[in-house]
Task: inverse folding
């Protein structure tokens, strides 16, 4: 493959993210990676207000595209394609990215490649940022984000089998809802993770739903309810109690995820796991996944992107586009908030 350069645009939730990536035929590298987020507003209001997120994205989309091109020292004519998140996500937010990408594709006369955001997350593992190796097939994919928790079996690029997913809340959603119950700001995952570092993960006994079930599904809403009941009996102004509870919540979520990852490894012929999504930025998840799969036969290799490529970004969208053959007529592309992995 000759050298290729793609601009990635991601606006599925509250971030306005762009990146320029280079594929030289041997490796995919970042030329720039820009993320503008309305995090201050979210933490003020305890979550995302869709209309407000979209309004902020309208303001920042052109500046972040300009910045990504400038940082990469790339002119629009140097691009081989424009990749954009088609869905799933918030419709107002998706429209900002999709309509901008369609317009640029027409003005700059560049192919337009729509990407499923959930597939995009996995492709963060194909970006070379250090000495780590890139995944090979077949591999097991674990997606853990704010809206999704899914297990898939990848056979090749674009070919995968859906194995299971959450029946209620996603793992990131569970972190966020528990954090809210504890009075911590949004997004809750990083907050809980920070406090958990100095807490005892065995301090409180919390449920791990579907632990012994035969499927590869997850369930996290019972954990949130248990936390809601438990805190009525606790003094959370005691910092150690708060830290112990955070550590116990984090451990319960991580244990539930790893239990089904191990079950999937034992069921399917895989030697590699690719982890993706915002919750993959959790350092304890990385440590525990590696520890709990150590010594398995055959040996299991765990791929996890660096934290800034786990949470929403434009780089993963551009990376996925290098493997997507289908381009879309810009006049026909429509944002689709309901895309999923479970076809
Ligand atoms: O992938 P992502 O950025 O957006 C979605 O596609 O949903 O994931 C966001 C989720 C949030 O629920 C956030 O709390 C969680 O990822 N998250 C974390 C950490 N960093 C972000 N959860 C646990 N530990 C973290 N360090
Ligand atoms: Zn995401």
Result:
């Amino acid at each position: 493959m000759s050298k290729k350069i793609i601009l990635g645009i991601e606006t599925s939730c509250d971030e306005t993210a762009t990146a320029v990536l280079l594929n030289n035929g041997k490796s995919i590298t970042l030329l720039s990676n820009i993320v503008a987020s309305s995090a201050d507003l979210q933490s003020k209001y305890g979550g995302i207000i869709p209309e407000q997120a979209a309004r902020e994205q309208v303001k920042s989309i052109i500046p972040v595209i300009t910045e990504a091109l400038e940082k990469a020292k790339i002119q629009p004519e140097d691009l081989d394609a424009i990749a954009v998140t088609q869905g799933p996500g918030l419709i107002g937010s998706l429209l900002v990215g999709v309509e901008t990408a369609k317009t640029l594709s027409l003005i700059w006369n560049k192919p337009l490649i729509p990407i499923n955001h959930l597939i995009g997350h996995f492709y963060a593992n194909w970006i070379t940022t250090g000495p780590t190796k890139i995944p090979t097939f077949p591999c097991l994919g674990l997606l853990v984000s704010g809206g999704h928790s899914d297990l898939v079996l990848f056979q090749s690029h674009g070919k995968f089998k859906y194995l299971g997913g959450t029946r209620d809340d996603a793992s990131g959603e569970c972190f966020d809802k528990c954090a809210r119950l504890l009075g911590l700001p949004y997004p809750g995952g990083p907050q809980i993770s920070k406090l958990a570092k100095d807490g005892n993960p065995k301090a409180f006994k919390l449920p791990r739903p579907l632990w012994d079930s035969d499927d590869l599904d997850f369930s996290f809403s019972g954990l949130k309810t248990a936390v809601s009941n438990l805190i009525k009996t606790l003094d959370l102004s005691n910092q150690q109690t708060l830290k112990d509870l955070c550590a116990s919540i984090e451990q319960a979520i991580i244990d539930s995820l790893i239990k089904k990852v191990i079950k999937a490894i034992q069921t399917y012929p895989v030697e590699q796991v690719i982890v993706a999504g915002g919750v993959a930025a959790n350092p304890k998840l990385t440590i525990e996944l590696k520890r709990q799969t150590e010594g398995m036969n055959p040996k299991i290799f765990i791929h996890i992107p660096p934290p800034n490529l786990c949470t929403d970004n434009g780089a993963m969208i551009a990376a996925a586009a290098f493997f997507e053959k289908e381009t879309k007529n810009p006049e026909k592309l429509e944002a689709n908030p309901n895309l999923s992995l479970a076809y």
